[in-house]
Design a protein that fits this description.
By secondary structure, this protein is mainly alpha-helical. Helices cover 65% and strands 6% of the residues. 18% of the residues are buried.
Amino acid sequence: MDTQQDTPYLELLQLIGLKLKRRADDSIRELGLNAQQGKMIEYIHKHQENGVIQRDLSDRFHARGASITSILQGLEKKGYIERKIPAHNERQKNIYVLPKGVELIEEFKRSFQQVEAEIVHPLSSDEQKLLKELLVKINQNF
């Protein structure tokens, strides 16, 4: 008898992660992007003053260089970002969000907040707080 209560933690986390990704992708699909692309634009914009490079994105999004390259090429082709070689270091390319990408960031945030609200909706405010505390604790110790 395999019930949700008997499901291993890893499987539950994977299922929740897949559902979350699908819901987030659906919420911003009308913008012509997926959730990962939206989060990447948001991250670049937030950190671009510090000189975001591809390796920063690989580390932050736990993705391989080739995957990041592919995502960046797509975002660049659509006019959301640009990569520039700084004068002080010709061996790297800094990544910047263009005005077209900046315009979408607030829409991403609204969509992601709505998805998050849907996810925690069945929980009481105390349960939501506890869930956040537990997830932060797991993340910090992993």
